[in-house]
Structure formats: C-alpha cells, structure tokens
Design brief:
Shape: globular
Distance between the termini: 34 Å
Number of helices: 7
Helix content: over 70%
Radius of gyration: 14 Å
Structural class: mainly alpha
Number of strands: 0
Strand content: under 5%
Order of helices and strands: HHHHHHH
C-alpha cells in the first residue's frame, strides 16, 4: 500500500506514457502493455488519493486521437476507472465530457475500436 501512495503523484504521467506507447505497432510493446496496464489500473483503483480529474487529461487526449490502439487503451482506462470504488462515483457524474468522447467512438469503423 505504501508503494501505491508513493507512485500516485506520477500516475497521470504513467497513464499518458502508456497511452502514447499504445500507438506503437511493435509486438513487444503490445506484450509489455498487456502486462503493465492492468497492474497500474489495480494501483489506481486501490489508491484513495487519486481523483478522476487528474487522470482524465491523458485519457481524453487519447480518446481524441486517430490511433485506434490509443483509443482502445483509453476506453480500457475509462472502464477501469468507472469500476473503481474511489473514482467511479465521480467519473461520469462530474465529468460528462468523458461520456461525450466515448459516444464519438460508438460509430467508429476503425479496426479494434
């Protein structure tokens, strides 16, 4: 638990880096993301000092991206945050712009979205 609290201030930058890396086409990057992203999502979901507000900037940027893998990564983060007991209750209620960005992708014809 101490580690979770210690890395909490760096989570927005780590989320941003993961979403940026998601646009890389190399299979090694995909495998690394498949391992790392769920671990960070658990950390975020269990950390009581994080709020949706500080994590939404990189997620919103990725949702606005034209790169389908970055969009998919952002959608996975939104789903994870929404299920968080600490963040989920405020996510869509206080940040309706996230829902708007998600709706933009419901008509997407991009592979994987």
């Amino acid at each position: 638990r101490l580690v979770r609290q210690d890395i909490a201030p760096y989570m927005p930058r780590m989320v941003e880096a993961l979403l940026h890396a998601a646009s890389d086409e190399h299979s090694e990057v995909d495998r690394a993301l498949a391992i790392l992203q769920p671990l960070l999502q658990v950390t975020v979901n269990e950390c009581k000092t994080l709020s949706a507000r500080i994590l939404l900037a990189p997620i919103s940027s990725a949702l606005l991206s034209n790169v389908s893998s970055a969009v998919c990564g952002a959608i996975r983060w939104v789903l994870s945050l929404e299920s968080s007991p600490h963040i989920g209750c405020e996510l869509l209620a206080e940040h309706p712009e996230v829902l708007e960005l998600l709706f933009l992708h419901t008509a997407s014809t991009a592979p994987g979205v």
